[in-house]
Amino acid sequence: MPYLGSEDVVKELKKALCNPHIQADRLRYRNVIQRVIRYMTQGLDMSGVFMEMVKASATVDIVQKKLVYLYMCTYAPLKPDLALLAINTLCKDCSDPNPMVRGLALRSMCSLRMPGVQEYIQQPILNGLRDKASYVRRVAVLGCAKMHNLHGDSEVDGALVNELYSLLRDQDPIVVVNCLRSLEEILKQEGGVVINKPIAHHLLNRMSKLDQWGQAEVLNFLLRYQPRSEEELFDILNLLDSFLKSSSPGVVMGATKLFLILAKMFPHVQTDVLVRVKGPLLAACSSESRELCFVALCHVRQILHSLPGHFSSHYKKFFCSYSEPHYIKLQKVEVLCELVNDENVQQVLEELRGYCTDVSADFAQAAIFAIGGIARTYTDQCVQILTELLGLRQEHITTEIQPES
Amino acid sequence: MIGGLFIYNHKGEVLISRVYRDDIGRNAVDAFRVNVIHARQQVRSPVTNIARTSFFHVKRSNIWLAAVTKQNVNAAMVFEFLYKMCDVMAAYFGKISEENIKNNFVLIYELLDEILDFGYPQNSETGALKTFITQQGIKSQTKEEQSQITSQVTGQIGWRREGIKYRRNELFLDVLESVNLLMSPQGQVLSAHVSGRVVMKSYLSGMPECKFGMNDKIVIEKQGKGTADETSKRCLRQESCGKQSIAIDDCTFHQCVRLSKFDSERSISFIPPDGEFELMRYRTTKDIILPFRVIPLVREVGRTKLEVKVVIKSNFKPSLLAQKIEVRIPTPLNTSGVQVICMKGKAKYKASENAIVWKIKRMAGMKESQISAEIELLPTNDKKKWARPPISMNFEVPFAPSGLKVRYLKVFEPKLNYSDHDVIKWVRYIGRSGIYETRC
Which of B58, B118, B159, B279 should be substituted to probe chain A, the one whose Cβ sees the most A Cβ atoms within 10 Å? Predict the structure, then answer.
């Protein structure tokens, strides 16, 4: 996107970055660099000051380093020959005594998307995998995945994969989870990381030490593990039961999915699983946060598709409040349609009838459509309601009912 | 995982853009703006799918935060991450506004680098982040500081570091609840629930062990079990004290709470993070004290007038005061004029919102207030019957509608020389209305 006057801006910034007075004053230097980044975010082409930015990377100020590396990662693909100069500083920083600097340099080097960088990254990454600071190990592990991403279809390095598999036993929980993610990406062609019995048990035992992101990821990976015996299945269910009540909604949803998949594999535990899963899911449906409420309702709909009739006794929870947002009300109406049974049909129809005269035409139509759906099983009551609605003679209602009949 | 994260202002201009994956291009930024921010309808679904790409968004005041991905991700986790991102940003620079974002964009890029590496969430605990990402930049650290930071970032107790000292050991407990009600015109409760959180702000030295006790039904029942004599004695005592217990439907705790102890003895014990954190979140649906009862009476006089009378009764101890009370009575779209009479507070007809808004600053418990209104309607040919929206209320009360009472919070720090009695403790209860609707 051409911007008027960007060449002037670049010239001005180039002058400022070369000015020795500014270079001497740490704060002023950092300010100029910040301006470069700001223009970069706005879409201006700042590649003209690449050389000056490379020189700026040789500093002890970590914040300045971060800014410069951010700049370099953005423009390296455009100026690959200049970027190679920057690699020198990065390599040096990978052996800095401060683990934060080591981690930062390694991460930035791995994000340099340009051809020819792989020969320089290999060694620092391998060193990083064995670094004594866990912060650096975390970065190095994901660095393997980034490196693999760059190459596309090059051969998978067997030794590296083995090293990553062994790092699954690392002390630091985030290193372990990053290993899983990395292996998944690297071994994508072969179907991802293999979760065999020892690995699955190891992960299950460490679940409580992971943070919420780690737990959600591990629950996802455990989907591909199949327990060999009844005993093992129940052990797993009991261990993971507490995660259904986790404070993290992501973990709750992940655990719910795992439980339902296990129920599919072993149908005789299905009733038990559904009982355990119902509570947290219903609680999520009335969550204070609209987005999570929406997500939970979508999940409930999915479940009702394959296992109909399960939330029927809780139909009242899906009644719509007037001030709820549109997208939540629509989901709730769909759910009500699916959980109708002999006991609750009267009340559900009453409620849906109330929605048919709602101010919002969209919502009213959705409610009518739902009544039409229920009419397939409970024809008489529905037809009565629909005829009454026709009597109101309101256009948007009439047009919706006619296709129903 | 997350392929890209974008932050826009209310006009749709990009403030922050970070792409983690090659499959997300610059056109994703524009796609979101065109299809969601500038979309025709008022309220958009939080998840939008455009061209096999999923956009998850969250809005804070007038700032849009969007996470983009082409993979099949755990939706709840993405939203949780966006909330965490907002929390972390707020912890650093307060309110999330365009100005704050523009002034701190360097910090935000640092944070995005740190907490979302390659699109995967990493360590996002504000306490840990604050030790090595500061707004002023890190001055060269001494070796000791370095090791302390790395140990906290990877330590056993990730949420609290050793060696914290305060002259005055204090803690504040806030019980924040939101009571939701849906009531039928006949006065029957269709659904009611209270969702609450206990937020603790602790300024305690060392690594104190804390124990939190509340009037949890299960705990009280357990205590009631003993020998037959003891049980009968306790029952008498309980009756005379009028001990009220609450049955919690489900509750979730902060990472620091030892869940095994909760499962076995139902006791909540933990070592708290320094400063503010959310101790627990819970929901109750039984025995809720509904602070207000709304009794509506609507009478149609012919086709040109509507007489409305609404009585609100406060249902709590007379010594307590409810505040910021607002009652919204919806009016039909073809209203021409409204006459309102109310003894307490101020009521105004707001034509733009199609409602009579009645505001009362304060109201004590066990009191009644009434408002009557005469609504004149324009004669219309439109035979559309007005489906009356419910009357909704907003208020704030200084007690917990669920009935939760904090019984104790004991602090043990054996290594330092302060005891439980030396700690200054404050508790307050704030019950707000969530969706509190009475159909009429």
Answer: B118
